[in-house]
Design goal:
Strand content: 15-25%
Largest sheet: 6 strands, mixed
Number of helices: 4
Low-confidence stretches: none
Number of domains: 1
Mean pLDDT: 92
CATH superfamily: Leucine Aminopeptidase, subunit E, domain 1
CATH architecture: 3-Layer(aba) Sandwich
Helix content: 10-25%
Shape: globular
Oligomer: single chain
């Protein structure tokens, strides 16, 4: 099956959302939205102390409760796996997934991207350009 990914690339910087779009960002297990994309999520309804689907946002933890320790790929995978049924239950929403785990958490794109392999066939998921490079057979420059 050929995946139509070219119209499903999350912008490098999201400054506005359409009504059906969900800003999906790297969070911490305490859901303190103090820096990075988590802080940006506050403008679309993320709430301090709450994770998951809140307002027009969805937080996927990449840091622990203290915000000092970066979660391992295996720990992040648990949260990504919990996110998958949410995406499937809401086909009316477009999940704009940012480069979770690749900013403040410090993971490499090549390590985080495979966590989203099960999402590539879901039309309501947009992924960062750098994730697509590791998920589809790309012959052209993306």
């Amino acid at each position: 099956m050929k995946i139509n990914w070219k119209n499903r690339i999350t912008p490098d910087e999201i400054t506005e959302l359409k009504l059906n779009e969900i800003f999906t960002y790297g969070d911490n297990e305490a859901h303190r939205h103090g820096k990075g994309a988590a802080k940006t999520a506050m403008k679309w309804g993320a709430k301090y102390g709450q994770g998951g689907l809140v307002g027009r946002t969805y937080g996927i933890p990449t840091k622990d409760r203290t915000v000092k320790r970066t979660l391992s790929i295996a720990e992040i995978k648990v949260y990504v796996d919990k996110f998958l049924p949410v995406v499937k239950e809401h086909p009316e929403l477009i999940f704009m997934i940012t480069e979770i785990g690749c900013g403040l958490a410090g993971h490499k794109h090549k390590d985080i991207a495979p966590l989203f392999e099960a999402f590539i066939e879901l039309e309501n998921v947009h992924l960062p350009r750098r994730f697509w490079r590791f998920l589809v057979d790309v012959n052209d420059d993306i």
